[in-house]
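SEVERITY: medium
COMPONENT: batch folding queue
REPORTER: lab tech (J.R.)

DESCRIPTION
The queue accepted two submissions in a row. Attaching both inputs and their returned structure tokens so the on-call engineer can compare them side by side.

ATTACHMENT 1
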Amino acid sequence: MRLTYIFTSLRLILRCIAIVILAPVAVALYYGDYASIAPFLTPSLISIVLSFILKTKSDTFESLNDIKKSEALCVVALSWILFAVISMIPYLYYGLSPINGLFESVSGITTTGASILTNYNYPKAMFFWRSMSQWLGGMGIIVLFIAILPQFAVAGRQMFFAEAPGPTEDKMTPRIRHTATAVWTIYVILTAIEVILLKIAGMPFFDAVCNSFSTLAGGGFSPNAISTMGYHSTPICWIMTVFLFFAGMNFALMYKIFVNRKISFVFKDEEFVTYCAIILGFSLMLGAVLYLEHSYNFIDSATNAVYQVCSIMSTAGSASADFALWSLPAKMLLFLLLFCGSCSGSAGGGLKVIRWIILFKYMKKEIAQILHPNAVYPIKVNKTIIPPEVIKQIIGFVLFYFAIFVISSIAISLLENNTLIGVTGSIATLGNSGPGFGPIGPMGSFDFMHPVSKLICIFNMMVGRLELIPFLAMLHPDFWNIK
């Protein structure tokens, strides 16, 4: 692993961070909140200073073209850690402790949506940054920088797949930079459309921007203390439901539909069909439970059921109602969804639907081979055979995922003396889906938790967003062969 390559990449990324973190300054100036300039100017200056500190004698951007996979993994991991720490600085200005500031920062950039806030008496610039940090993290900060930095035209390929290492590597265009640009173009257009629709539906413009940032990112932060429920509007719920659904979709699939003008692509994609089937099935079951066991009418039952299912499937975690108060059957349905995740290539997190599809096909194959041991049963997705090494990686990934979930659940349960907090808090943060149940429910807060519990949740959020791969790579001794 060559430090020159890593430092050069980080210098470029730090310069970009220095620019994007200044966006809330415009909001502060617009609202005449001059005290909110320093909280964002300071981390911007720190980013610039760090970019100069990392300069080396042999620093040339052209050298990035032959960056290795291990170096790309290191750059991605360090970039997210740096972004988290720099994003934490504004929260310190607003009175949050370092650990609470880091928790809120990591929750934002990983689009988890779990919050430590207990009151919402903060300037608009801070709420804008909370939502914007989710929007930046939703499509991936590396993907953004590949799209805007010509220096990553070639080296970006390794980093692109290191940041979002799904079981399939969808490449929409011949050049990876064009792919990154296409992804962000769709992302920006959908965000703008949602802002307009929410404004038409009666949501204040500032709230419309913040909620659109969080929705398309599969996040969950809202400037409203009680999330989407605070707007008391069925049309707003349905608009956000549609865009939560989009957030959980594969953006490569969206691009294919847009370019080829053929909606039929969606019906040929196994992951998307399964994604829709899960949403439909759980929405029907949850809607029936809400209608029969709660005081909701038919419209409210359907609205809250579909909204909450799409919110958790896209790992957004925003809420149209306080589902922590729902009956046990309703909460059990939502708890099962926490283990599902969104589609690969989406803004959402979690285990991803495609991994479950491949795992179930693998189990079906193993059962068939008990009866027919000499038969060959290739595992196919979208008529493409999945290589055995990919299946092994998926099985390994799932085993590590559940190992981390079990260990963090036990640790947090012991620290908090509460199994419900330990189990739901662990899967909610590892799956980047935000709130859990009980005190850490959609209207609750993680603020009361033990500092060590918060650190475990922070680790879970980072590992969950980067899908374990960069962190697992760091466990191998060869990774640290520094040159």
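ATTACHMENT 2
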Amino acid sequence: MGLKVLKFGGSSVADGIQLTKTRNIIEADPDRRYVVVSAPGKRFEIDNKVTDLLYLCYTHMEQNLPYDQVFQVIADRFTAECLNLDIDVDLQGELDTIMDNMKKGCSRDYIASRGEYLSAIVTAAYLGVDFVDTANLILFDKKNRLLEEETNEALSEELAKHERAVIPGFYGSSAETGEIVTFSRGGSDITGALVARATKADVYENWTDVSGFLMADPRIVKDPRPIDRISYKELRELSYMGASVLHEDAIYPCRTANIPINIRNTNIPDDPGTIITADVEISDRVVTGIAGSKDFAVIAIYKNMLSKEKGFFRRLLMILEDFNLSLEHMPTGIDTVSLVISNKAIDGRLDEIVDEIQSQLKPDNIETFEDISLIATVGAGMSFRSGVSATLFTALAEAGVNIRMIDQGSSEMNIIVGVATSDFNKAIRAIYQAFA
């Protein structure tokens, strides 16, 4: 099929058993040439992720508390894996270097990145292929924003020198200072996508502990249907609303290069998983997926003759900017506008925000609702079918769910409803049953 880039998540490299599965998957297909790995995840329910232990080390350093024992737990975990799998690598030298840097007061990002760094070194030695560090290949500016063109050029040039390689995910470095910079948690997905684009891969396989995407959260809906194929646009909508199989920022590099992403299950390697493509496939399926997020506040503003008042929305958005708030949604009517904002972002300042809106814009009435959840029903086929909204709203009405807000995207690919958080699970189940 052509060159493939693989990314293995923390559960896929958690221990020797999982690493053996990983090797079997890679060796089953000679096209699988470049492998990106996360730091080892949990081996069992009450276990710790290596990255969490590394963050704990840094916390201890900040508080001038001993961190040697925590770091030793990490060291013992990697050492035991090497012994069990008979991996020939100078692990102790790497561990000593990390400890020396910690004693010198290294950065939080440096410490956090060492899980991926060690994981890649061990995996490369186990597979007998090259280890390629991303420290000077994935580049960030002084505000820790990814330098896309420079990164693509550096990765392309370096990886062209290696027939096969293992690459650590999650981090790169500052183009100015050379210091380690990390992505947000789950950022190894982004690294995999960047490597796929740089190598002009035919497929980016993202291996994790689930067999692709499901139409709804299995913790809410019993045995939801799997999604065998989904477009980047649909996935972007679902990821934004809480579907968390793939880091949402990992979509963009592959989308721009038109590289399909295949979500696969390390524990069930024969399962085809979910294919993510640029093309929107219109089929008999009306709804592709349902996802939601909790903990939003709604500020509902009423002002008579609002539609005639020039500059109202500009001033309203400037107030949000002054509070450093991003807006999730803004449904409007002829005399009304509602602001949907994350409660986490509001951070207890709701009364202060409302007072500022009242002071500057003089609305006739403001109401606030703090216990709101958003649910997105997403599907490329929705815009080509009549009666979708009627089916959705009827299902919610029959389930006794009161809709507090409705917002439909301009692409007509999604319908977002706001409901009381107490109705969240019930609403998702009702929507699923209506379209599954």
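NOTES FROM REPORTER
The CA atoms of residues 197 and 257 lie 6 Å apart.
No errors were logged for either attachment.
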